[in-house]
């Protein structure tokens, strides 16, 4: 089971004892009384397991193309902004991102590019792929920011993402 964030990890840890109890008891169908006993054992086991488990820290900011599956490939990011600051565009270019691999086909659909951090999620559906020799190779995601609030929110995400992935900033000449 793949868990992408601490809340998802807690859900995964909570499910593990249930599966163990069901397999250990051979319970395919539970009677109402047995169901309550199993449920109580699962709650206690899940709490114990969560306390004993090593802390897994999710990155403070990450990008997903499939909900719940962080993209490990770090993109090149280009920013432009209008002179009056009313609009801005960020172009993310991924070279051979992992979500294009055949192994990730079972993980879900690609429905957009999701920029996630502690403040929430920024989403764009402007995602395109460039094919090389009949296979997708380069993926570009474009985030359009309208107004100073959206620009500032995006920049807070980028500061966290840059810190988590060792990115630097260089101004265009």
Q: How is this structure best described in words?
A:
With 173 residues, the protein is α+β, with helices and mostly antiparallel strands. The protein folds into two domains: 6-52, no CATH class; 61-165, Photosystem II Psb28 (Elongation Factor Tu (Ef-tu), domain 3), CATH 2.40.30.220. 34% of the residues lie in helices and 29% in strands. It contains three helices and eight strands, in the order ααββββββββα. It has helices at residues 6-25, 32-52, 148-165; strands spanning 61-66, 69-70, 76-81, 87-95, 113-117, 120-124, 127-132, 135-146. The protein has a four-stranded antiparallel β-sheet with strand order 2-1-5-6. Strands 3-4-8-7 form a four-stranded antiparallel β-sheet. β5 (113-117) and β6 (120-124) form a beta hairpin. The relative contact order is 0.14. Residues 1-56 have low confidence and may be disordered.
The general outline is globular
Structural class by helix and strand composition:
alpha+beta
**Main sheet properties:** 4 strands, antiparallel
Could you tell me the number of beta strands? 8
Output the CATH topology of the largest domain.
Answer: Elongation Factor Tu (Ef-tu), domain 3
Q: CATH-wise, what's the superfamily of the largest domain? A: Photosystem II Psb28
Please tell me the total number of domains: 2
Order of helices and strands: HHEEEEEEEEH
Number of helices: 3
Our Rg estimate from Cα atoms comes to 21 Å
């Amino acid at each position: 089971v793949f868990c992408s964030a601490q809340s998802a990890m807690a859900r995964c840890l909570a499910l593990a004892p249930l599966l163990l109890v069901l397999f250990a008891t051979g319970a395919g169908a539970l009677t109402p009384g047995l169901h309550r006993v199993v449920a109580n054992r699962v709650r206690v086991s899940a709490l114990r397991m969560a306390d004993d488990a090593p802390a897994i820290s999710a990155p403070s900011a990450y990008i997903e193309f499939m909900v719940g599956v962080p993209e490990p490939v770090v993109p090149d990011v280009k920013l432009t902004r209008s002179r009056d600051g009313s609009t801005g565009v960020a172009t993310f270019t991924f070279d051979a991102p992992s979500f294009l691999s055949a192994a990730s086909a079972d993980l879900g659909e690609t429905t957009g590019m999701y920029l996630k951090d502690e403040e929430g999620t920024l989403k764009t559906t402007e995602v395109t792929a460039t094919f090389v020799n009949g296979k997708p190779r380069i993926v570009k995601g474009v985030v359009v920011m309208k107004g100073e609030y959206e620009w500032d929110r995006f920049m807070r995400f980028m500061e966290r993402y840059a810190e988590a992935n060792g990115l630097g900033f260089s101004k265009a000449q």
